Amino acid sequence: MRRFAAYAALLVVLSACTTAEITGPGDLTPPFNLTYQLIPSGDPDAPEGIRLRWEPPDDGRVADYVVYSRGAGGDWVRRAETTSASFDDLGAPDAQYYVTSQSADGVESDGSNVVTIDPAERMAPPSTLSSISLDGAVRLAWSSDARLAAPELFDHYRVYSTRYDLDRGTCDPAWALEGTTVSEDFIASGLPNGVPRCFAVSTISRDGHESDWTTPRDDTPRYDARNVLLRDAQDDLSASGFSFFVPSTGTLGAVLSGSRTDIDFRVDRASDGSMWMTPVRSGTSVTLYGSLPVDDLTSIDYAPLDGYSTAAIEAVPGYGYVYETRLSDGLHYGAVRVTAVGADYVILDWAYQTDYGNPELRTTR
Questions:
Q1: How far is CA 28 from CA 99, 109, 111, 151, 157, in A?
Q2: pLDDT of residue 11
Q3: Contact present, 166 and 355 (Cβ < 8 Å)
Q4: Are 341 and 285 in contact (CB under 8 A)?
Q5: CB of 1 closer than 8 Å to CB of 45
Q6: Which end of the chain, C or N, has fewer beta carbons within 10 A?
Q7: Phi/psi at 108 (5° precision)
């Protein structure tokens, strides 16, 4: 992010200033309780501007208000006139502001209280950022340390995203605001599956100061579904096959006949009643994800680099499995979590990464 010398200069701590030096010739009642809030831009050193608000006086002679400002150590300058009790000064803010009341004949009141941009209000960003790949969305979560370090200053978080180049490992510089939140998690929804994105989070203080950003985090939404029922081939061959993706139709997560040769795997029942998932398609293999059950489908993160086999693997409730399957455009990865096994069926959750060569099934690394 760029650093702007003009904004850095206005963050100089100024000497105390009172309205005693800001007096008008009339006896109009001045505005009171002047406050400010910076308008975040995404660049902590260059906010979009500053928003001033004040309480209007109960004085029928007041026609409008006059806004004054000055840079660090400079002279007061008449900035604007407004009939509302607020004013947005866009661009790099000045260091101090005050407001006067003005009558219809141009007579001004004494000045309101002076507000000074306080650099001490700037907070730190969250120290960690994690993510979970979802179907058409990404769930982001970050540490609460920035908020807990200065809870009296905290206001909200801003979440940003941009495209991610998986091959180069770089984030596109054209970042956009995804949204804001007061909690330490955020669902970025409406995202295309198989398209990698970068995410970052900043902390906003009550007066609008924006922190630096977290280290960017890349993630790729992927297709998934829950509670898919497959029969074993020995009892119902027509509903025993599963394909993460059917190229001829573009179908995702299809339950098909176990007699087909283009399915990824088929459910078979062994003589002892146990259920097994048998890879079928040429170029498809499977490996167990870890040695312990997984809490949820989203617990299956990056596809393992090795350990894949074309041999059948037993379907055990609670365990996760990762498939790699080679299609015409390259290698793809799919994940399965078995939720239940019956006498003649298997129920499972599945996820599939349409971005070829991308092993990301959930990015908690």
A1: 13, 5, 10, 39, 41
A2: 41
A3: yes
A4: no
A5: yes
A6: C
A7: -105, 155
Tell me how far apart the alpha carbons of residues 143 and 161 are, in angstroms, rounded to a whole number. Answer: 18
Phi first, then psi, for residue 287 (nearest 5°) are -145, 150
Per-position DSSP letters for 200-239, written without gaps between them:
EEEEEETT--B-PPPPPEEE---EEEEEEEEE-TTT-GGG
Q: Give the per-residue pLDDT at 126.
A: 98
* Count of residues making up the chain: 365
In angstroms, the Cα distances linking 21 to 13, 114, 266, 363 are 19, 11, 85, 58
Instruction: State residue 8's pLDDT score.
Output: 41
- Each residue of 50-86: pLDDT tens digit? 999 999 999 999 999 999 999 988 899 999 999 999 9
Asked whether the beta carbons of 277 and 267 are under 8 A apart, the reply is yes
If you write DSSP's letter for every residue of 76-95 in order, what string do you get? -EEEEEESSSEEEEESS--S
pTM of the model: 0.70
Question: What's the whole-number average pLDDT of the chain?
Answer: 90
Q: Which amino acid does the sequence have at 68?
A: Y
Instruction: Write down the number of H helices and E strands in the chain.
Output: 2, 26
Q: Which helix (H) or strand (E) holds 147?
A: helix 145-149
State both tokens at 298.
């989203």
- Read off the amino acid at residue 82: T
Interstrand relation of 251-256 and 275-279 (parallel, antiparallel or unpaired): unpaired
pLDDT confidence bin for 361, thresholds 50/70/90: low
Only one residue has tokens 């407001």, namely 99
Asked if residue 157 lies in contact with residue 213, where contact means CB atoms within 8 angstroms, the answer is no
